[in-house]
Design a protein that fits this description.
This protein is α+β, with helices and mostly antiparallel strands. Among the domains are: 1-80, no CATH class; 182-284, Chitinase A, domain 3; 290-393, Chitinase A, domain 3 (Roll), CATH 3.10.50.40. Helix content is 52%, strand content 18%. It has 15 helices and eleven strands. Strands 4-3-6-5 form a four-stranded antiparallel sheet, with helices on both faces. A hairpin with a 4-residue loop joins strand 9 (377-378) and strand 10. The longest helix is centred in the C-terminal third of the chain and has 32 residues, at 397-428. The protein is extended and about 90 Å long. The protein starts with a helix and ends with a strand.
């Protein structure tokens, strides 16, 4: 919260009190207390209306969920006031380090909330306005996002993960379980029954073989299962098994699935309950991480105070022609590029992982052959000319695994360190409760 907002809030309260005092000698009407300060927190205050509003929110939420409220009302209100004080301290800290979210960002979050409720953005806003909580919801979203960003920044810098901790974690049972790949498996079952004759079993085998032959990228197992249910009198079962670790899969499939490629089909696998056909729909995680990389060099020109958009485009086209005429790309980049991160290296972006460039740049680069030079193209930051200097498939398994382990360790430490940090900022703050 900025100083202007603080001053406005304090002046509002003082002004309301002064009006009551001035009016007192001239009227016999009972004084009405509009609001009052109940806590001074560093350079800000907590108002009684804020406490009342939060109590109403928590009470309503408890009633909706059927949860009982604490019997000690005084302690209940004291705990809520303490939470408001700690929030106030965090918002002041966030203001000092310039953490702010504009209205467009808040609108995108509200848009996601609307979709989660199967509503359009306008419908969601209308519903909030009808209940009189639209502005309140916007500010609550803004506050929560601000505090989360502040907490991530302040707490993560306090957490240190050593190489030995990573080694120990990767060698632990928990670490091996966490780093194991997740598989998304689809299953089709042609069941056996006690009444099956050899002829019926043979027909089921033929049906399984026919389904397997038809499954491809355009006709996945799920579609084959649905079609078979409609077009055959034989009962068809099975379903998507969802995301699972290998050891969570049926033992019949586990060893097979870990050897399959995405989209691959295996079967029929005969079991006591029938014939199974399985397809590995997707896979994520695991210790194997091979990434396509591209070595890229580029020149970037951005419009500025002395060069408008048209002049910038004209200049990048002149540079492009100089490159086509045989001048050294790196030398031109050092002399002309506005990209501070690559200008010293002659525009060299080094090896870039697939998906690591802005979409408009990646689309252009993907279409180039090695040593190919692009036509000038526009991105959000300016005009570019790019050249591809190499492509490779890089094994990043070790780096990926250790990064994942470090993130897991950091997440485990975060809550404890967050609690310690909140205690520290509360103890360091000036707080005076107003009776």
């Amino acid at each position: 919260m900025n100083d202007n907002n603080v001053n406005r809030r304090i002046l509002f309260v003082i002004g309301a009190l002064l009006l009551l005092l001035i009016a007192a000698p001239f009227a016999n009407a009972q004084r009405v207390l509009l609001d009052k300060i109940i806590a001074i927190v560093d350079d800000d205050v907590v108002l009684k209306s804020e406490l009342d509003e939060r109590i109403l929110e928590i009470t309503a939420a408890a009633q909706r969920s059927g949860q009982p409220l604490p019997e000690d009302r005084e302690q209940f209100e004291s705990d809520i006031l303490e939470a408001l004080i700690v929030e106030n301290i965090q918002m002041q800290l966030a203001n000092r380090v310039s953490i702010r979210y504009d209205d467009d960002t808040i609108n995108r979050v509200l848009g996601n909330m609307a979709r989660n409720n199967n509503l359009t953005f306008d419908q969601y806003v209308d519903a909030l306005e009808e209940n009189g909580v639209y502005l309140q919801t916007r500010e609550q979203v803004r506050k929560q996002m601000t505090m989360q960003e502040l907490q991530r920044g302040m707490v993560n810098r306090r957490i240190k993960i050593t190489e030995q901790e990573i080694d120990n974690f990767l060698n632990s049972e928990m670490g091996r379980e966490l780093m194991a790949a997740d598989y998304f498996v689809d299953d089709l079952l042609i069941p056996f029954s006690a009444a099956d004759t050899p002829e019926i079993k043979a027909e089921k085998q033929r049906l399984a073989a026919d389904l397997i032959s038809r499954i491809d990228d355009d006709f996945p197992l799920a579609a084959a299962r649905a079609a078979a249910r409609q077009n055959t009198a034989i009962e068809i079962g099975g379903a998507e098994l969802g995301w699972r670790k290998a050891k969570q899969l049926p033992s019949l499939f586990a060893d097979i699935v870990v050897e399959m490629e995405i989209g691959e089909v295996e079967g029929p696998i005969e079991a006591g309950n029938g014939l199974h056909i399985i397809q590995l729909v997707d896979k994520q995680g695991g210790t194997e991480q091979f990434v396509n990389q591209t070595r890229v060099r580029h020149i970037m020109l951005s419009p500025n105070e002395i060069r408008d958009e048209a002049q910038t485009e004209a200049e990048i086209r002149r540079i492009h022609q100089r490159i086509l005429d045989g001048e050294d790309f790196a030398a031109i980049a050092r002399q002309n590029s506005d990209d501070a991160s690559s200008v010293v290296g002659g525009g060299d972006l080094d090896w870039v992982n697939e998906g690591g460039m802005p979409p408009e740049m990646e689309q252009v680069v993907d279409a180039l052959e090695i040593d190919g030079v692009s036509e000038p193209f526009r991105s959000q930051v300016g005009w570019h000319v790019a050249r591809v200097e190499g492509r490779r498939l890089q094994d990043l398994s070790r780096e990926f695994t250790r990064n994942q382990a470090a993130n897991a360790l950091r997440n485990r430490k975060f809550e404890l360190e967050l609690e310690n940090w909140l205690i520290e900022i509360r103890e360091d703050a000036f707080v005076e409760l107003i009776d």
